[in-house]
Design goal:
- The chain has 436 residues and is α+β, with helices and mostly antiparallel strands.
- The protein has a 6-stranded mixed sheet, with helices on both faces. A 5-stranded mixed sheet has the order 7-11-8-10-9, sandwiched between helices.
- Helix 12 packs antiparallel against helix 14.
């Protein structure tokens, strides 16, 4: 760890990790819990997200309004998020308010009262409906269903409406008990923080009340897919929303640093190849970019483009040409150095906030990833070579291995456009009419 990082594992199993930043007067405090859509059974799909909402409805000591008033009085905000493998609850407060913020957040995380459950069900159902109406968001989950077919990673984080609507309160309590167990939780803080004092606060709370059987990802850890798949959902939209992608690198794969550099070159910046060729030179799309996600045992690479029907086929053809170019010529020396500098610059700039430091601590520790110092990460990025990029481009980005997902008005037009990928598609599945 870096010199200012400290880690303590309590007898209860909770891990406490901090990074002292003496130049600031604030503290970013977060609770990181091993609860997310990948850790749910099919009958629980969406409970991690619903539970995140219910944490804010209060405990026996603090109701929902009191929580808001307490953080308002401190000039602070409290928020939360649910992902594929984690749930986080976090706030940023002045250092003199740390103990009060910790007290309230502990109660929220480990002792929710499960009030107003039916009201919050309706809120989440509205969120699902909003998501269904937003093809620019939903197409990423359509891609996930193709890449991770049969694995919980294929499911949307929001889950299924019938699970949200019908799961009994006692079953939600049991889900909380099983997932919010002490050894599934990391308490992370960065800023004006005394590590020993935070450890004592956690110890005094005694989170051993959270318990249950260990929870592990369902469905194994898919390293890849047997063959590319196609998913399409028909919807009366002005644009076709298209994602191409495949299985990628696991979160502990040392090649992830090279993948960050390669992703920048392909579609991660405004000077990237896809942005320049599709948007700037030809005006075929407003939104186009690539991305890489990392999970336990696997990962995902992908790209997104939104374009009108008249430009769909040409857009995909240009993308395919750029992917073929990438596998043969992943970068010039100038592109390599520019991408490295971009990755390093964004890393350093992002860590100017206490919240970013806290996020790095909590997410890395919960995922059992080595917590590297900024200097260590920069060293790994500087070590990336053209040969590294060539190996990854050939391994991950060959057009024939990519699955395809689309949302738009005409399946035939979509199928014609993606034919230029040349994939040996599994039978088309998951294609539906508009759901709304």
């Amino acid at each position: 760890m870096a010199r200012n990082d400290r880690l303590t594992r309590l007898d209860s199993g909770v891990r406490v990790v901090t990074e002292a930043m003496p130049s600031v007067r604030s503290v970013a405090l977060g609770f990181w819990i091993a609860a997310g859509s990948r850790l749910e059974r099919d009958s629980e799909a969406g409970l991690s997200h619903l539970l995140e909402h219910l944490l804010f409805k209060g405990s026996d000591r603090f109701d929902s309004l009191e929580i808001d008033q307490i953080f308002d009085s401190m000039g602070a905000e409290i928020n939360a998020g649910t992902g594929k493998e984690t749930t986080s609850v976090y706030a940023r407060v002045l250092d003199r308010h740390l103990e009060r913020a910790f007290e309230v957040m502990c109660d929220m995380v480990w002792a929710p009262a499960f009030r107003e459950v039916d009201t919050e069900r309706e809120v989440v159902l509205e969120e699902i409906a909003m998501y269904e109406d937003d093809p620019q968001d939903k197409v990423f989950d359509v891609l996930g269903s193709a890449v991770f077919d049969g694995d919980p990673l294929a499911r949307p984080i929001l889950g299924r409406a019938e699970v949200i609507r019908d799961t009994a309160v006692e079953d939600i309590r049991a889900f909380h008990r099983d997932h919010y167990r002490a050894d599934n939780v990391v308490v992370a803080a960065a800023g004006s923080i005394d590590h020993d004092r935070l450890v004592q606060l956690v110890r005094d709370f005694d989170p051993s009340l959270a318990g249950g059987p260990a929870v592990t990802p369902n469905g194994g850890s898919p390293a890849g897919q047997d063959r590319p798949r196609v998913r399409f959902e028909r919807k009366d939209t002005e644009q076709y929303h298209v994602c191409l992608g495949a299985a990628g690198l696991a979160r502990d794969d040392d090649r992830r640093f090279a993948l960050r550099v390669l992703d920048n070159i392909l579609g991660g910046t405004s000077s990237s190849r896809l942005f320049q060729e599709v948007r700037e030179k030809r005006g075929l799309a407003y939104g186009i970019y690539s991305f890489a996600n990392h999970y336990a045992g696997t990962g995902q690479i992908g790209l997104y483009v939104g374009t009108r029907a008249d430009n769909l086929e040409q857009s995909v053809a240009v993308i395919v040409a750029e992917l073929e170019r990438l596998t043969c010529d992943p970068a010039s020396e100038q592109e390599l150095e520019r991408s490295k500098d971009n990755v390093k610059g964004r890393l350093v700039l992002s860590l100017e906030s206490t919240a970013a430091h806290m996020n790095r601590l909590g997410s890395s520790l919960l995922a059992d990833i080595e917590l590297l110092s900024v200097d260590d990460v920069i060293e790994r990025i500087d070590a990336v070579t053209l040969d590294d990029l060539h190996e990854l481009a050939e391994l991950l980005w060959r057009p024939q291995r990519l699955s395809a997902a689309g949302i738009g008005p005409d399946q035939q037009a979509f199928s014609a456009a993606i034919s230029s990928l040349g994939g040996n598609w599994a039978p088309l599945a998951g294609s539906t009419g508009s759901r709304r």
